[in-house]
Design a protein that fits this description.
Blueprint lengths: L21 E3 L5 H10 L6 E3 L5 H11 L11 E7 L8 H5 L3 E5 L8 H7 L4 E5 L6 H9 L9 E4 L4 H10 L11 E6 L11 E3 L1 H4 L4 H6 L3 E7 L2 E2 L2 E4 L2 E4 L29 E3 L5 E7 L18 H7 L4 E5 L7 H13 L3 H9 L8 E4 L20 H15 L10 H15 L10 H25 L8 H6 L2 E11 L5 E9 L7 E6 L3 E6 L5 E6 L2 E3 L3 E9 L4 E8 L8 E4 L2 E6 L5 E9 L6 E11 L2 E12 L4
Parallel strand pairs: 1-2, 3-4, 3-5, 5-6, 6-16, 7-8, 7-9, 9-14, 12-13, 14-15, 22-29
Antiparallel strand pairs: 10-11, 11-12, 15-16, 17-18, 18-19, 19-20, 20-29, 21-23, 23-27, 24-26, 24-28, 25-27, 28-29
Helix pairs in contact: 10-11, 12-13, 13-14
Length: 630
Amino acid sequence: MNAPVAAAAPDRPDPTPAGALFTVVDVDRLPRAVAEFLAAPAHTPVPVACARRPDLVHAVDLASRLYAGIALPEPLDVGILLGAEDLPEGLPALARPLARTWVTEHELCGTAEAFRRRHPGTLLLVGCYDRLRLDPIRGLLLTTYRGREPGLTLLSGRDAASVAWNVAKQYTSTPAAGVDAIGLFTDTDRPPHPSGVRVFDDRDFERADIQAEILGTRWQRVAFQGHGKDDSVNLGEFTICGLNAAVPARAGSLGPRCAYGLPCYKPEDKLVPLNRVEAAEVVLSACNSGPLADLALYDPRYQLLLNALDGPARTVVSAVSVHDSDRPENVAWMRAALAGADSVDTLNAGLAGSHPYPAFMRFGLPRTPRDMPAPTPSEHRPDPLVLTVGRRLTTLLTSELLPHNHALRPRLVKLARKVDLWLARPTHLADQSPEEIRSSLTADLQSLDHVITEQVAANPENEIMSYPAHFGDRSSLDPQVHETTCHCGRPAQEFTRRGLLPHVSDTICAVCMRCGDVTFRVPEAPSLLAYAADEVAQGGVLEVRAVLTAARPGPVRLGLFVPTYLREDTTVEPATVRVRAVDDRPRDVAFRVRFAAETAPQAYYFTVFAVQDLAVSTARRHFGVVPRRA
């Protein structure tokens, strides 16, 4: 509905055209206009006491093109007027339908927890910006941390006229036809571009007129994410600007450069006045984009939050302090915007694993459908497999185990970069679900495990096989020793050598007094034992049974090799094999070693090895070759 809006003089009948969403009135006419509206809200425009604020009259005109009509909003549970004596007569009555129960400001004396116990449920605070101070807002915000209490909603503005305007906007219904654009402008991320969201990043800032894109579109929801202060958000050379030139500055207040007659720190022809952005919801995802009144750095004339509240946006989301919002929150917000979910709940849930406080505040009543579940706070608990692989990559790449020119290094470095990004909340790959991350990781691991297995089978003297000695020399003995049984049937001892430095892995070794060090592995790696006859005749076949206990369900690759001096006289079948473990129960894997007729009779050994998730486990077994019988 593109309904016009008109200013009404206090001494003549309201000239507002039929079908208008708002009527601008002088503050003296507000009580009567509110009574008329509440008596017939479906047929009467919402009164706005801003006749003496031309900037707000312009915002009312912009809003008349943004919203489809008027509707009573779903009320919150509890409401409080902050500084009711500073609000014009009639405004409390206009705000009353926005909450089911209203209590006095005096109820906020004491702790926020005590107030919440007395008045549970969703909470609405209405008052001028100078009333939004650390006490009591901070305590009320903290009660919403990790969903302990329902969220906090605020309606505010730089003065009584701005508050009246923000209360009036809450009576608008759905966005008008054609107001369906969802946009994300980010200067710190290059996120994915989901269908239905217009995404602009630093590459676009260099080749597109971002100012025209922002001001030339009527947005259902738009988010600005980047670095800034409480007066600006940087978008390359473009800047979201908080200055409202229509309001005076306060004497003695700190301001940005322009407050002292100096040019802006960014090109002034690329400033985007926030109160001119036509959007039903504006998200200011920059640190300190909406500080409380006693935390603000700059004069209210220059503040982003207040300029956004002066504009047509029914909902403004801002950050009360610093936060680490980046790829995960950008992606989560885009998904929430497409689904119609609440922006504040989504952003705070994404940051719950990084901050012990809710980073974002909501100005404007929530519009989330009642049947839509709230997002679950993110604890950022990386997949244990990602952590295990990350530790193994660190030891392989930084412990000097592998020389600088080792064939595995380029692929290990590439995987290490991916794992590092996955562990960063996962900041740069948040567009992948946990299932997609694990799928990508396991695919890389299977490929690398295959390469390691083939390299070791071709050359058992590969440097990766010397890890027990390399790490053991840089370790100390754990005094805890476990009694176990060697595959020869005799008692053995299993113990752990603890790496002395972070890049030195622990190693687990089993030693038999007859067979020596029979098994080696690193923590959370497959376990192996190898069984075979004690003797095999020249030209005969040694049947080997390897007993594998996988570290986790999934593919494991195995191989068998004999000493270099025996390789010309033997054939191993199969050289390598891939098995899929389904649980942690031991599994038999068969190998055959065929010996040439001229193999010299003496004692030998073979080694079975298993590779899973970059970890190599070994089991060594002694046997003897004896002369053929006639």
